[in-house]
Amino acid sequence: MNYDNDEMVLxxxxxxxxxxxxxxxxxxxxxxxxxxxxxxxxxxxxxxEYKDSDYLWVGADxxxxxxxxxxxxxxxxxxxxxxxxxxxxxxxxxxxxLRNIFYEAPLVVFNNKFDFFGRLADAAIAYMRTxxxxxGKKKELLMATHHEAENILKEMLVTVPHNEC
Length: 165
What we know:
The protein is mainly alpha-helical. The chain has five helices and three strands; from the N terminus they run ααβββααα. Strands 1-2-3 form a three-stranded mixed β-sheet, with helices on one face. It starts with a helix and ends in a 7-residue tail after the last helix.
């Protein structure tokens, strides 16, 4: 049977896997699917599809808002790290899009989600620190976060064990 790339990715993503770990083959197709979806996300950002977003991201110990609440001195409960930006709804939209892409593959799961979203948050903060006004431009912020997701995906590909022939 011949399948085009999209059909193969869909077919493999629906395979049953009784193991706790994803098979190497399914992982590689997940990476290919995520790469396609990341390319589509660039167009969505350029087309400003985030405009109607009203959600603020809170998850994996990361929160995005216009301002951070005062930090508690209590050690419990643990507190989220905040990305503070006037573009909080737009950045939250990108986080949701990236979550959907990487969870669907499934490349991000319970044991690596904190690193994944932490790196996205760090990328957003790093971009804002480079801006003269400490805020930057909306689309550049979203693209800096997107770029970090691309870097993570490349690292995932490099870490796939390769079977020797």
